[in-house]
Amino acid sequence: RTSGEYVTFNNELYRIVSIENGTTKLNKNDYVKDTSNTVITKQFASSTIFGKTDNTQTSDYWDYYLNNDWYNSIEETSKNMLVDGTYYQKQLSDGSNYKGAVCEIVSNTVTIKECEKATTIWTGKVGLLRYGEMFASQQGIGYSNSEDMWLINSYSSSLELVWSVYSDGDADGGNPWYSYGVRPSINLKSTIKITGGLGTKESPFTLGE
After folding, report:
1. pLDDT by residue (tens digit) across 109-130?
2. Which of 13, 66, 171, 202 could form a disulfide with 126 if both were Cys (CB 3.0 to 4.6 A apart)?
3. pTM, entire model
C-alpha cells in the first residue's frame, strides 16, 4: 500500500492518504453527492470544532451527518471494514506551518519525525482532511471544481472561522455556518486485504477481509 493509490470502497473511488498504527486512512476522491449526483452542501458544525460533544446533533451539520446518516448508508460489508480514526484539529492561523496541524510545538526547522503529536484531536469513524494533509485540496484544475469544501482544522477561535478550500483551489477561513461540500476521510482495519486491482484510477484496488 502506498499513499496516493486508488481504492474502491462502498462502490466509490477513494485514495490512500497514509498508513499509521496498522490502519489505512482513505479519502473520498469526490464530494459527497445525493442520488441525483448533485453535490451536498452543509454547515461545518454548530461550532468551529468538528465532533464537539455539545455541538447541535442534527443532519444540518457535517459532523453529525457524516457519522450518522452517511455512515449508516454504507453497505454493511464495507462498514465492517472501518475503525475509529484520530483526526488532528489543532487551530492554525493564516500562514501557519502545515506541520502545526500534527505537532504540538512547531517551527520551520521541526520535522514530522521530531514532533510531539498535538493533543487537539477528535476520534471517530468519519472525519475530514486536515490543513496541509495529502489530498487536502481540490481534485480538479483551476475553476473546474464545482464546490467549496471544508477541512477539519479551525482557522481562528476569536473570529470563529474554519479552514476551507474554495472551488478555485485557494484556502481560507470560512464561517462554520456557511454551506460547503466535503470529501470524507475514513480508516480501514489492519486486517483488510487487497483482493484485486492495480491501485490506479483506472483499476483501483478492491478490498476484503
Report:
1. 766 677 788 899 999 999 999 9
2. 66
3. 0.91
